[in-house]
Predict the 3D structure of the following.
Amino acid sequence: QQPVQSPQAVILREGEDAVINCSSSKALYSVHWYRQKHGEAPVFLMILLKGGEQKGHDKISASFNEKKQQSSLYLTASQLSYSGTYFCGTEEDSGAGSYQLTFGKGTKLSVIP
Amino acid sequence: DTGVSQDPRHKITKRGQNVTFRCDPISEHNRLYWYRQTLGQGPEFLTYFQNEAQLEKSRLLSDRFSAERPKGSFSTLEIQRTEQGDSAMYLCASGIYLPPAGGRSTDTQYFGPGTRLTVL
């Protein structure tokens, strides 16, 4: 089942912060975050495994709450280069070990000067 | 550039024609995935390979679709008797899967630039 991302779109001024949420109704093993710019392939940002860990990558970090099956992506001090559509891809925690990712519909982030 | 390449980048075809796309993954990667993406949507899983074995196929993959990875390196995705509804971006991703000592593990998927298919 497709995870739900919120918000659908957000506009930020340079230097502002944003949070993008990803929620699933299924038990998850991992959450993968990608950024896609128009006409380009999705670019990997980070992966979080169940265990409630938090990861950081420069000014972008993420958390995973496995009890709530929710992940959040945090963008701080946004830069123009952060503009794009952010997708979360979820991997279900099934005994069969399914490795396919199910992606949300994306959150379009626009950073303006 | 992730190191995953796809060919062609664009394909325009007429309804009813067959098309074939190629994906070359990162050389040491043993996993290869195919996804389809339409405008305003996230990628949708189609199928994946571990080495040359096709391990999982989505219900989205009708009988008109077939994928191969004959030597565990490059992969091809063929669509027979194309329909207008097949118009989409077809994305390939590769990853490296290492069997875990215990439990399970996952792999990071690196996407190629995609092949944009337009069916007239």
Chain B is about 0% helix and 45% strand. Residues 29 and 96 of chain B are 4 Å apart (CA to CA). The two ends of chain B are 30 Å apart (CA to CA).
